[in-house]
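Supplementary material to the annual report.
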Amino acid sequence: MLEIRPNCEHCNKDLPNTSTEAMICSFECTYCKTCATDLFDNVCPSCSGNFIERPIRPSKMIEKYPASETRIFKPKDLKKAKLNSEEYKNILPKNR
Ligand SMILES: [Zn+2]
Ligand SMILES: [Zn+2]
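Predicted assembly:
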């Protein structure tokens, strides 16, 4: 089950369950669209995988299966992230 983390790991923007801006990698590193797309070029700075839009858990399920309330806020070293993005952004995710 997805944790549905409450914020962007890099800029700390709120990303509630109903947000349409939340992006996740396969490890559920969670970023806002601006960070994931503009800043990291669709390359996760932690695992180098791609991001996809996080699905929204339907309202009838969210009470029984609540979203995480644990904020993870670890701004990335942008120099390192840029090098990582440069290395992987032109490689299709399935070939990374
Ligand atoms: Zn962000
Ligand atoms: Zn990742």
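Residues 25, 27, 29, 44, 46-47, 49 surround zinc ion (ligand 2) (CB under 6 Å).
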